[in-house]
Amino acid sequence: MPPSIEDFFPPVVLFANTPFALNRVELVRILVVIVLVLILWLGTRRMKLVPGRAQVLFEYVIGFVRNSIIVETLGEKDGRRFMPIIMTIFFLTLGMNLTGVVPGLQIAGTSIIGIPLIEAAIAYVLFIYAGIRKHGGLKFFQAALFPPGVPWPLYILLTPVEFVSTFIVRPISLTLRLLMNLVAGHMLLALCWAATQFFLFTLLADGNFLGLLGIGTFAFGIVFFLLEVFVALLQAYVIAILTAIYIQLAVTEEH
After folding, report:
1. pLDDT in tens, 66-94
2. CA 167 to CA 165: how far, in whole Å?
3. pTM of the full predicted structure?
């Protein structure tokens, strides 16, 4: 059966007809949170001066997010202040993304709009909060909507554009970038596996040599699987780095 949009709205599987009803996607999200908490707890429980392989890997990933995304963008002082929330965004997004390629789960927790929308809203609130705290409300909005060095008559055109791009397009683009990449990835993988099953186990089993096309769809499925792992990593990096960049733009004197 080919994939459809109904894959993203599965039926309730637990606590039906109650306020706590859960479908497969929500169970995947809960599982990701539990696994992330467990990994972070185990990774920091017994840190050694001479680390083993698992600790080296754990420290490398944490260090990459800390240094390459947060500190490099925001600096040491602002980086420390916003590090917990950006770290959370990165690892939660990564965990939710990777469930799309885990056998038995096979749907990303970020392929439904809820998580991408919440993360985009957090990033939106963070950069406005950072800008207001740094410059004060009036100066922050003045710098955002009235860029310095522009002739006053041009503000009639420029200010509405700045308002839309800064305060409307940013959260929408963050949401849709993450959401649509994961939706498209799920549909491509599901289509490849569905086609492989049809060609190999239906046509070929009936003696139709067109079923050999299943070898090609299986190969494409492997390629898309690897691509989806890469996209999962990339989109976690993108939403974390963009959150840091938006905060950095808000706290600079001119942005």
Report:
1. 999 999 999 999 999 999 999 999 999 99
2. 6
3. 0.88
